[in-house]
């Protein structure tokens, strides 16, 4: 690189003179040449030697070093962050497994019979806090599973007791009812007080009601144990028509209507169970709504399912009872009830529908109540 002589300005001349006096080194900017590091050193006699080193290469080196340090530091931070994230994910994986197991447990149908909790969290060998949480969770799931087994066993024994008791009570109740009827016939031939006649009438009515409860309990026990065992061809259209006709006779104060298809709707099911189911749907309206209530029974058959709907304009179900109306002996505190009600009517409807692979639903507000039973098309013929 060739350099042409440059004329120094008066300012630079004064600066260099001051350096001669001070004997120090300064950085100066030479127009057209850039920055120089200039120093004064003694020479022969009274002369002084002025030495200048260009700063541009040094500045480039410093800039490159700063850039290199920035790149190295950024890379180091990224690597450390990556390792830290991987370590955090690895340490959090057991917690994610615990969350997955907990979520799967919440999806299990624990409200059904024979329900179990087979899920367990993965055991970890490291003695960490997360491992302790996993062990505690497994212990808790084990206790819950044991409690469910004990609950199922208790319910099984209760069902067996109800079935056995119902079976054993049927005969003495039938005998008591027969003797009451025999005494009532004997009264027609003798002169007995009117109170005796009333007492015998009450005995006959109450033994009949008890026999109905026993029959209901026995049916529920059989449904719990084996579901719908018999498979007959049942004409649902005929069953619905008969149930409404019977309701018109037993409760003439209600306004009954019916809507069924022109063609018979036939399903494969237990005939007696289906009759009880439909009869209980209609009887539920008759027993729990006041005189003058409008009731409509519909039977619909679509391409995928069969729906039996009973709608009434009565007072409806209390809000707290809707979700539990199919429970056994469930009764609303504020709903009109009859002494003939056993609290098992809708329980039988729900059990028979479930045994047929269907369901029961209730939608109720004051003046607008609908009880709907849905049966899958697989049971139709």
UniProtKB/TrEMBL annotation:
This enzyme's EC code(s): 2.7.13.3
Predominant place of localization: membrane
PROSITE patterns reported for this sequence: HAMP, HIS_KIN
Subcellular localization: Cell membrane
InterPro entries: HAMP_dom, HATPase_C_sf, HATPase_dom, His_kinase_dom, HisK_dim/P_dom, HisK_dim/P_sf, Sig_transdc_His_kin-like_C, TCS_sensor_his_kinase
Stretches assigned to the Histidine kinase domain: 164-379
Domain HAMP residue range list: 89-149
UniProt-recorded name of the protein: histidine kinase
Source organism of this protein record: Rudaeicoccus suwonensis
